From TrEMBL, chains A, B:
One of its GO terms (molecular function) is FAD binding. The keyword Disulfide bond does not apply. This is Phenol 2-monooxygenase. Keywords: FAD, Flavoprotein, Oxidoreductase. Residues 8-407 form the FAD-binding domain. Residues 445-663 form the Phenol hydroxylase-like C-terminal dimerisation domain. Belongs to the PheA/TfdB FAD monooxygenase family. Signal peptide: none annotated.
């Protein structure tokens, strides 16, 4: 037994979108993490392709949103097509693909390989190339030492991992020369014989995150079974260049034919189009008692899928060239009842929820799972936050998974159903599609009350109660603090533009709030120029923040820079001409020991010279009379809205007291966050991040 | 004599901004070019830093405008400061730095090294790494064989080039540890002994472009002397991090003190600030009769510059840390009377014009020189355009250089002059500054009538006739064709947004008109849905374009794709809901032999879902009743406005007949431009360029 043994703070199993997103967080926050994958190759075609608004916001917060905007196809419009009396399809409506006003970004489409590349580049940059996907590596066993799960310093999870040969890791795809998703799932663990211990490593981890897909090995190891059901609806997928006289081929289209099934068109980058095509007639298995009567996916070919598509397209013609990828799937909705074991081993992404792909949710919700989880793990591993925050992962994300499954159940049955007399109602389909698009954007996810979301419990709102026997889906009602009438607590803070006081730049405030692991304290000061009370409270808050007893001081490690755990930002409703820089409270224009000043923490709500007026006070429903204090989580979700008075400060103090770990104080060692330029780390608006938070190496 | 000998179509001498810009064009258009530089290193600090609007538009057209927007500091505001009665400086006004509405971009600031890097990356990408700066290589002689200058196939220019050792190429900078510009100019040719022929290469070139700076060796070789004068004003420059209680340090500031001189502040990336500081007292040379009394730049130190700055800043305090670079210069305005010899050897950039740096013009105008020149050379080398177009380079750019010199003469004297009684007028200074900013943006450059700018000759407009003895500066009056009332012929076509018909995308039409070497024919069709005449002319134009006799066919090489020399674009004033795709004329939705359709050449003027209404017809002053045809040069300048009738087609036909070379026709070999994806070549809006124009390899 000369096998290798090692410790790691976090082990990620599975390098798909969920795994990459977790690794992106860990690289950004400087966590000692590893990521393994059993497949030998990255993917280069097919798979998921839609990037929803919220995902783009998150990409932007990591500094690569611009790559998505530049490279991906922007999908702007949905056209609905339905059969006329003659059984020909006709256009019935056009609507915007992204609900207008829901986000600064709109949905874009690009193949999954590019998306994983951006995260790979970001991981490389921030980890200085120390965090790389290790592949092909197959996990063999996972054990949790229950006696140690409450010890934050322990490594209670033991994972044995075998390095595969390239032959083992790259089973030949069948289905011909065209890449496809029919046989993507590699069950490398099935028949593997472990003969040589030298290829096996024993990894002791504080935390393990299973991002290993719908057939998750991690999920099975921790004894969780998916719940849900599968329908009879079979769909095929083609990534191809259509040659057609159908006029809307470059828009997203939802087509119901009279008798031949439905199609969804997703226009893609580079002249490609993804066609989701309902397969009314599919080859069935007959060779195996267990599988008998089920669809035999190995018999599905691009030609068979195209044949179905042509019937639906009638009277339009359809040929295809340059087909890049195809697959077929059977619609089902399944969700995991639990998302973790002992809050030490977590599962995320497809390991927790599977459903039909047409709403572009799988990859997005998967990435948002680990975007929710990994910063919490990072804060706990770093000793910043209490381990209790880890329980919010399941609470928050399981609800999202259930909402998704309920929505998809309804949506996919309406899309697959035959329209008209005795069938489904197309007007109901359109209505669900529009409501679903709002949900699918990811921007209305609403996290439940918890130690990191300070609000009373709210009722669920049902959508579409009167549906004909189909399950209704429901969303959590929003909760607003009257101080910020349009800021739902528990939702992501919608992006709004402000003007930088010091240099008159119009910026999205969110671009000042990068995903760097910091909590934000946004102080809406009101009109400090005209309102003496506002100016006085600004001074009170500033004095508090700079005092030795403040929550900033208490929860920031002595070795770290002062604002590296909690980052204060001031948004004034006074314009730049009415109030001087040096009259603003000092905490928001802090100097380091060399005298360097932070010029980028004070903003105003006023018209910019070239990009209009963000009207952030109006957008957030904050009165310039009263102002407000917002606490925003490292992932951009609103934790708390507090009043601009001593009581409000106390409320924020209590909030952080409940979440963060008190550090060993040593006031003298706190310095201002120094600007440190590295051309590779440069960021939007010519500002690289102002220094490195405590989480960075 | 075993020295190396070779042929090249174009040799660029000097790898500064002008040289890189020329190389960027040649890489993009697939021209056989080389670029040499005598210095051993790229620069990493200091030098020029401002990027003007027009430069950003050009960067965008090459596909790297986004890098500037992301990395550079956005400079939004100018604050004017002037002395009060007590001799203290006070803020007198704030104005936007970029004139509002003048461009889709605003001025940004970043050090020259990054800017050269973007061009280097673009050159690498498009030349597939075959075009690289060869350094250190020193040109020794240049000879033109006059008997061959009229033969387009000949290589009449012979340049001998010596490869330097690293020691020769990197003379030690004096002036201490801080990088500086005082001794940047390397006169490597002065004392060099050529002992070994093996280090010498003889290059035979069709064309040579000298981009070798203010002391241009190429200029001297072709016997051109600069004209102009030098003032007594001496200025110092510091790139530094100021520690100050001056409140506007992150804005551009123009400060006149009472007695101590003036300062310009340029806020930079990464907390840096560039300070231009007038030096009232400067060390003079005393050791040399020739130089006696002139400023001895070698005695200027950062401390001396800072000392001057502190006097001007009074009563504000100023310290500096992290100084990255410094220099000093004596203001002069010099311009070259000729820009070429035999239209075979050209000079560009600082080799043609030098002036004070504070308006951020040197690097920008230099790049715009070769942006103007290199596409013409490319078209001639490729046999697409007649060599006569090369004469337009001097005609167009010398006027710009003269305008610049006249403006700078006035501006720099007003800036350096003492304000108040007996001195200069600050209100005149402000007025000239504002007018100058419009000029400095690069967007109002107005090219003279020529074979590629079809307009009558226009008067010059004088600005500021009444100035007190200072030379007035003047701009060419605009010429408008009544069909496009707001499109000055000879100026760059201002950017405007349209909506892609096929997929509802709001795009800047300019982003469809990349700098890829193609001429554009923009057909403003009018309201084809409601106006039968407009629809009929659309069909006429389309039939013409697709006919064997059209200018598209005639001037496109048989081996090239149909629209690779002239690229037709249709902009309709009918909205997308009122007219069907297949009713638009065929030339604008052309199919290739496999049936692939071009979906990105038809646009509409209508509100987009998320980004407002571009109103391009209104912006360009084109009536939806009449429409218009615009011919736009490969560099984005408007050549011609023609009517939407048979006469208009004839006018365009005559225009191209005068400029382009008739190709050997072979209709059958023309194919549609195929979409070819390469992830590295991907471009804005998810569309990589639709195929490669004839100029690409």
């Amino acid at each position: 037994m000369a096998s290798k043994e090692s410790n790691v703070d976090v082990l990620i199993i599975g390098a798909g979108p969920a795994g990459y997103m977790a690794a992106t967080w860990f690289a950004r926050t400087g966590v000692n993490a590893r990521i393994i994958d059993k497949r030998g190759n990255k993917i280069f075609a097919g798979q998921a392709d839609g990037l929803q608004c919220r995902t783009l916001e998150v990409f932007q917060s990591f500094g690569f949103g611009d790559r998505a905007i530049k490279e991906a196809n922007h999908m702007l419009e949905i056209c609905f097509w339905e059969p006329n009396d003659k059984g020909e399809i006709i256009r019935s409506n056009r609507i915007p693909d992204t609900v207008v006003g829901i986000s600064r970004f709109q949905q874009v489409v690009l193949h999954q390989g590019r998306i994983e590349q951006w995260m790979t580049d970001s991981i490389k940059k921030w980890s200085q190339d120390t965090l790389q996907v290790e592949r092909p590596k197959l996990p063999l066993s996972i054990d949790i030492d229950e006696s140690k799960v409450n010890d934050t310093d322990a490594y209670p999870v033991t994972v044995k991992v075998k390095t595969l040969s390239d032959d083992d890791a790259n089973p030949e795809q069948f289905g011909g020369k065209i890449a496809n998703g029919l046989f993507r799932q590699f069950d490398g663990d099935k028949d593997l014989k472990v003969e040589d211990d030298s290829e096996i490593e024993t990894i002791h981890a504080k935390y393990v995150i299973g991002c290993d897909g719908a057939h998750s090995w991690v999920r099975k190891q921790i004894g969780i079974e998916m719940e849900g059901e599968t329908s009879d609806y079979i769909w095929g997928v083609l990534d191809t260049v259509p040659i057609t006289d159908f006029p809307d081929i470059r828009n997203r289209c939802a087509i119901h034919s009279k008798d031949s099934g439905s199609i969804m068109i997703i226009p893609r980058e580079d002249g490609l189009v993804r066609l989701y095509i309902q397969l009314r007639e599919t080859p069935r298995a007959d060779d195996d008692a267990e599988k008998k009567g089920r669809v035999d996916r190995s018999k599905i070919t691009p030609e068979l899928i195209l044949e179905n598509a042509r019937k639906i397209f009638h009277p339009y013609k359809l040929d295809i060239i340059d087909t890049k990828w195809y697959t077929a799937y059977q619609i089902g909705q399944r969700v995991s009842p639990k998302f973790h074991k002992d809050n030490r081993v977590f599962i995320a992404g497809d390991a927790c929820h599977t459903h039909s792909p047409k709403a572009g949710q799988g990859m997005n919700v998967s990435m948002m799972d680990t975007y929710n989880l990994a910063w919490k793990v990072a804060q706990v591993v770093k000793g910043i936050a209490k381990p209790e925050i880890l329980a919010t992962y399941e609470a928050e994300r399981r609800q999202v998974a259930r909402d998704l499954i309920n929505f998809d159940y309804k949506f996919s049955r309406l899309f697959s159903g035959k329209p008209g007399e005795g069938g489904i109602s197309l007007s109901e389909f359109h209505q669900v599609f529009e409501k679903g698009n709002e949900f699918a954007s990811g921007t209305i996810v609403d996290y439940t009350p918890s130690m990191i979301v300070s609000k009373p419990d709210t009722e669920m709102e049902k959508f579409d109660e009167g549906s004909k026997g189909l399950q209704a889906f429901e969303f959590r009602a929003q909760y607003f603090n009257p101080l910020a009438k349009n800021v739902p607590v528990g939702r992501r803070l919608d992006h709004a533009k402000v003007v930088t006081y010091s240099d008159a730049k119009p910026i999205w405030l969110a671009d000042r709030m990068k995903s760097d692991g910091r909590w934000r304290l946004i102080f809406f000061s009101g009109d400090v120029a005209k309102n003496e009370k506002a100016a006085a409270f600004g001074k009170e808050l500033s004095d508090y923040l700079l005092s030795k007893d403040s929550f900033v001081q208490k929860y920031t490690p002595a070795s770290a820079q002062l604002f590296s755990v909690i980052d204060p930002i001031l948004v004034s409703s006074s314009d730049r001409r009415s109030y001087e820089w040096f009259d603003y409270p000092e905490a928001f224009r802090h100097r380091d020991e060399d005298g360097r000043m932070d010029y980028w923490s004070i903003y105003t709500d006023e018209p910019s010279y070239h990009q209009g007026h963000g009207k952030i006070y109006e957008k957030y429903g904050i009165s310039p009379e009263t102002g407000a204090i917002l606490v925003v989580r490292p992932d951009g979700y609103v934790s708390l809205v507090a009043d601009t008075n001593t009581k409000g400060i106390k409320e924020v103090e209590d909030f952080f007291g409940n979440v963060l770990v008190e550090q060993n104080p040593s006031w003298a060692s706190h310095g201002f966050i120094k600007a440190k330029r590295d051309e590779d780390l440069v960021d939007t608006y010519g500002q690289n991040d102002i220094g490195f938070p405590v989480f960075a190496r």
